[in-house]
Amino acid sequence: MRIQGIAHLLGWMFLSLAVLALFPLLIAVSVDTRETVTAFVVTIIGSGFVGGALVLSTRGSGPLDMRRLGVLIVAMFWLVLPIWGALPFHLAGTAPSIVAAYFEATSGLTTTGATVFDEISLLPRAIVVWRAELQWIGGLATLSAWAILVAPDVRSPLFDPSLAPTSLQSGSKWLPRSVFATIAPLYTGLTFLCFLALAVAGMPAFDAICLAFATVSTGGFMPRDGTLVSYGLPGVLWVVTIFMVIGAVSLFWVRGLLGRQLTVVRGNPEPYWIVTALLLLTAYLLIVALPTSTNERFASILEATTVIIATAASHITTTGFAVSDVVHTQLPLVLILALTFVGAGRYSTAGGLKFQRIGVMFTAARREFHHLVFPHSAIGGARAQPARTLQTEEAIWVNFFVVTAAVTVLALIMSVAGLNLTASLLAAVSAIGNMGPAYDLAASSDIAGRPTYSEMPPGAQLALAIGMVFGRFEVLALLTLFNLAYWRA
After folding, report:
1. How far apart are CA 157 and CA 143, in angstroms?
2. Cα–Cα distance between 373 and 386 in angstroms, integer?
3. Could you give the angle at the alpha carbon of 208 between the alpha carbons of 228 and 176, nearest 5°?
4. Taking the CA atoms of the chain, what radius of gyration do you get in angstroms?
């Protein structure tokens, strides 16, 4: 029954992928070559056939019990679906190899934004849309995964179920239906609003669609070569900044704000920390980059300030849009690494460890330091903390050390692949932090001779793709897959 239930849900994933591929197929039929059309036709037929066969052959399998299988289903999404998502890249002849195609699809579905395509302008327009759609699908899958991992009997101490919608706390075994009924409408609505705002700001419709997909999902794929400044539309920068921040905070928090659920809004300080970090980074860039930006490129201080705010939002939210080369080069490498590693908000599409977890770690460290200095003091001692709080702190620290170890291992693999130490570390943090463009945005003088993603050997690309999945998946939930006691319970 478990295998049938998993196959049934996987079949629906394939069918959804086939349906979403219809949009780029229409574009391919309109403006692209026969080879591109064929690539999407084969993808749709293949995904539809496999998905339909799985769904029909497992009919009557009953509701899927998420208490044991939720973690496995989330893992299967990011490991299996990129294989099918890579088909258009490979069949259309745009990706240099099968591994590169898988890298691109994984980067999209994990909303990492790293790309093997050095010249977007040479790609068929249907492929550009497909890249953006993969990121949008990945953003929705990320939010769904968060919801699954806070469900009863699935959640670990890393997750706070009080921030999830009430419908996801009811213990329903058919959780995916509740997830989509709760999250998908809001996520889709925000994407449509972003598209309308970009169109009103003057952006061409094609670019607005692709950029809306990438912005709300905090993905980072650009619809064309160059930077956002090259559009020459200041309004676009404000729209992208606003929706990047919305994508980086908890969507459950946004839902609570719109629904005037004050308990949810007040109970999560993380959005305020994200905004504070955005203001601090903006202030830093105003001091460091404003004189250079005004003198070299921008016509006014207001225009330069707008670009600086958008650049700060791009890094804080782990989106990684190339806003302006002039401003991005003012950020030191260590700051880019730190922002990518920390990430943005929980229950969002952003990457990294998350702000609130870093805050919990500092709070726990401060309390333990106080206890060492004043061992007989009752304030700040472990006994003063609820058992649930201590368990959460322990889980967050374990998560931190596992992620740090993963970055170290991936950096060593990249070093073996031929990258220097600095480039290896940046590539590893960019992949696991799910902010792939950070590797490209760092000043070239800091990493002399680094290869682009397309120039890396296939082994390095595959290692980075696995790192993206590892970074997107919550570490302790991922480790659950290898815990025999969990499956025997």
Report:
1. 18
2. 22
3. 115
4. 22
Count how many Cα atoms sit within 13 Å of the Cα of residue 361 in the half-sphere of its side chain: 15
CA distance 168 to 229: 41
From the list 473, 453, 449, 451, the residue with the least C-alpha distance to 462 is 453
Mean pLDDT computed over every residue of the chain: 83
**What is the arithmetic mean of pLDDT over 63-78?**
70
Whose tokens are 């897959």? That residue is 481
Tokens of 439: 């590797």
The Cα–Cα gap between 364 and 124 comes to 51
Q: Among residues 464, 403, 404, which one has the least CA distance to residue 428?
A: 464
Tell me if 453 sits within 8 A of 355, measured CB to CB: no
Instruction: Give dist(CA 154, CA 306) in Å, integer.
Output: 43
How far does CA 54 lie from the centroid of its chain?
28
The whole-angstrom separation of Cα 244 and Cα 323 is: 13
pTM: 0.89
DSSP state letters, 253-302: HHHHHHTT-HHHHHT--HHHHHHHHHHHHHHHHHHHTHHHHHHHT-SSHH
Angle at 190 between CA 284 and CA 269, to 5 degrees: 50
What is the spatial distance between Cα 158 and Cα 347, in angstroms, rounded to a whole number?
Answer: 11
User: Using CA atoms, how far apart are residues 423 and 298, in angstroms rounded to an integer?
Assistant: 31
CA distance 218 to 246: 9
Nearest to 417 by CA among 388, 384, 450, 373: 450
CA-to-CA dists, residue 192 to 161, 199, 202, angstroms = 28, 11, 16
Query: At residue 3, does pLDDT exceed 80?
Result: no
The reported pLDDT for the residue numbered 149 is 63
Nearest to 253 by CA among 243, 244, 262, 241: 262
Determine the Cα–Cα distance for residues 289 and 10; give it in Å rounded to an integer.
49
Percent of the chain at pLDDT > 90 equals 47
C-alpha distances in Å from residue 158, one per residue of 183, 346, 354, 388, 420: 21, 10, 11, 11, 34
**DSSP letters spanning 196-238:** HHHHHTT--HHHHHHHHHHHHTT----SSSS-GGGG--HHHHH
Q: What is the distance between the alpha carbons of residues 20 and 13, in angstroms, rounded to a whole number?
A: 11
pLDDT, tens digit, for every residue of 429-480?
999 999 999 998 886 656 767 899 999 999 999 999 999 999 888 766 666 6
Burial class (CB in 10 A: 0-12, 13-18, 19+), 98: middle
Instruction: Give the DSSP letter of residue 21.
Output: T
Q: Is the pLDDT of residue 8 over 90?
A: no
pLDDT in tens, 185-229: 889 999 999 999 999 999 999 999 999 999 999 999 999 998 999
Q: Is 397 exposed, middle or buried (0-12, 13-18, 19+ CB in 10 A)?
A: middle
